[in-house]
């Protein structure tokens, strides 16, 4: 595993596996810009989001509520999907108990939510990351955050050692989230309020890009709009077929 360098050197990318099965679309990628989420605060400069997509859509239903109101989270393909450890490490924090919020794809529904951003930030990690897990990847950092898990599904406890691919919980919509998705970031400190973000790369995944091009990537960072799916290490380039067209609906 690559890790962050010491204070005198630049941060080296931390290599991760995708934390899910099936096809997910990339949003807020550091391949497009840094800081990927518009801020260097909270250790989020190189964070990335993934939303499950099936048959070109992120949700099974699209109706008037999609454009005018809030939506139930169980219509989204990501909701309740198993979220797996992208790397091995020791659990330093595992937060549960935050409610899953209604989804807000509608610009109208998002206005009030945006205005309440400051109040969520004042609640600290729970208000921003919701139900989440923080892993120490190398006995003193860097630290990996897996955020927005479903209430009541966090499956690990502080002090526990986890391995790559171990279940951490299920995808939810807790914390600072407008629809079910998984958020990953790596930091140089376990406290997001003092941490600096660390670059990441992903290993062994199939990608279908927005222009339709497909590729088996051994090490890279997918861009916004890419649809990705994890593959086993050593999978031949011609041995993995795509799982359907990309979608952002």
- Percent in strands: 25-35%
Q: Main beta sheet, described?
A: 12 strands, mixed
| Helix share bin | 10-25%
Main structural class: mainly beta
Query: How far is the N terminus from the C terminus?
Result: 35 Å
Task: Give the C-level CATH assignment.
Answer: Mainly Beta
Average residue-wise pLDDT: 88
**Strand-and-helix sequence, N→C?**
EEEHEEHHHEEEEEEEEE
Determine the CATH superfamily.
Answer: Glucose Permease (Domain IIA)
Number of helices: 4
The CATH architecture can be named as Distorted Sandwich
State the total count of DSSP E strands: 14
Radius of gyration of CA atoms, rounded to a whole number:
17 Å
Low-confidence sequence ranges = 1-9, 241-249
Instruction: Kindly report the CATH topology.
Output: Glucose Permease (Domain IIA)
Q: What is the domain tally?
A: 1
> How does the overall form come out from the CA principal axes?
globular
InterPro entries: Cell_wall_metabolism_enzyme, Dup_hybrid_motif, M23ase_b-sheet_dom
Protein name: M23 family metallopeptidase
Pfam families: Peptidase_M23
Region (Disordered): 230-249
């Amino acid at each position: 595993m690559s890790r962050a360098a010491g204070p005198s050197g630049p941060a080296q990318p931390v290599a991760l596996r995708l934390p899910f099965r099936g096809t997910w679309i990339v949003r807020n990628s550091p391949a497009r810009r840094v800081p990927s989420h518009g801020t260097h605060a909270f250790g989020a400069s190189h964070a990335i989001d993934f939303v499950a997509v099936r048959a070109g859509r992120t949700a099974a239903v699209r109706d008037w509520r999609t454009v005018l109101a809030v939506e139930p989270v169980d219509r989204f393909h990501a909701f309740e999907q198993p979220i797996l450890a992208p790397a091995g490490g020791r659990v330093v924090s595992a937060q549960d108990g935050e409610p899953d919020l209604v989804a807000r794809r509608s610009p109208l529904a998002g206005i009030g939510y945006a205005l309440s951003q400051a109040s969520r930030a004042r609640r600290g990690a729970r208000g921003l990351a919701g139900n989440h897990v923080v892993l120490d990847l190398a006995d003193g950092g860097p630290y990996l955050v897996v955020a927005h898990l479903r209430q009541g599904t966090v499956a690990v406890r502080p002090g526990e050692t986890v391995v790559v691919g171990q279940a951490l919980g299920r995808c939810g919509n807790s914390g600072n989230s407008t629809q079910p998705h998984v958020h990953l970031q790596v930091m140089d400190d376990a406290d997001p309020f003092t941490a600096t973000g660390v670059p990441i790369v992903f290993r062994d995944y199939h990608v279908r890009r927005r222009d339709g091009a497909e590729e088996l990537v051994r090490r890279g960072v997918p861009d916004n709009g890419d649809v990705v799916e994890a593959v086993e290490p050593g999978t031949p380039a011609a041995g993995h077929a795509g799982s359907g067209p990309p979608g952002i609906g």
